[in-house]
Amino acid sequence: MINQIPVKTLHDGVVIPSVGFGTYQLKGSQGAQAINHAITNGYRLLDTAYNYENEATVGEAVRRTTVPREELFITSKLPGRYHHYDDAVTTIQESLYRANLDYYDLYLIHWPNPIQDHYVEAWQALIDAKKWGYIRSIGVCNFMPEHLERLKEETGVLPTINQIECHPFFNQAEQRKWNEEHQIVTESWSPIARANEVIEHKELQKIATQHGKTVTQVILRWHYQLGAIAIPKSATPSRQRENIAIFDFELTPAEMEAINDLTKPHGRINDQNPAEYEEF
Ligand SMILES: NC(=O)c1ccc[n+]([C@@H]2O[C@H](COP(=O)([O-])OP(=O)(O)OC[C@H]3O[C@@H](n4cnc5c(N)ncnc54)[C@H](OP(=O)(O)O)[C@@H]3O)[C@@H](O)[C@H]2O)c1
What we know:
With 280 residues, this protein is an alpha/beta fold. It is 39% helix and 15% strand. It has helices spanning 28-40, 55-64, 85-99, 119-131, 145-155, 173-181, 202-211, 215-226, 237-244, 253-260; strands at 7-9, 15-17, 21-22, 45-47, 73-78, 104-109, 135-141, 161-165, 185-189, 229-230. Strands 3-4-5-6-7-8-9-10 form an 8-stranded parallel beta sheet. Helix 1 (28-40) links the parallel strand 3 and strand 4. Helix 1 crosses helix 2.
């Protein structure tokens, strides 16, 4: 049975699934097959990026499925080296050609790169690309309040989505609160922290046992109850199904609190602090 994934409405009226599928490292024929399995298993939101070098793989999976294009929700991202306005416009067009799509449902600035400091003109390019019909909704990744404030001040437009690193060891409570106060939906990248030692955590295992669920399902349910859109990646069809079988149980407030308490100040997976880290 295909899981029905609930949806959310963004501040521009666009409707988005509340759990998506990460595609980082899914490339070529095996990648297209894995993404195709994900669609068959019920995922509709596919998260790619220009820098993953797999927009064409996502496009191939879309070509292979019988699910109509308008039922899918496809995201890509603008890399740091193309923040200048003209480069950004060309890159969005190139992203579309690579995936053989007429439009993206969501397009994000991948990193703010505040030292380079061209993210406002990149944002203007996304605003215009939306007007031209290339993109239905526009957002950012890894933006902090000071970066978002500048978008608001200089363009008057705030993103619909801020995709940030978020998992039990680094739960970004303050950034999520800021996003929520500004009607920006948080999307969680590496939502299960790449299935590292978090999966072995005793507290999470205890909660999972109480619900007859796996630790991964407990973590993904926690994102859902926080109001964040998790985008777990898995090349494995059984795990893909496991990761969206989360709508038949509920974590108690005490369990939510216990998971919130696992966060650590230096809990980032690769120490990528967007105030300093830049990616091109
Ligand atoms: N905006 C950004 O800057 C940014 C940065 C990083 C990632 N992202 C996006 O976020 C997506 C997800 O993040 P991620 O890929 O870094 O990490 P993730 O989704 O937290 O973890 C993926 C890893 O977990 C394993 N896994 C998945 N489900 C599992 C399960 N039920 N049980 C055990 N292991 C499981 C996968 O293995 P198998 O594949 O072998 O099953 C894979 O090794 C990416 O794919 C990408 O789309 C965005």
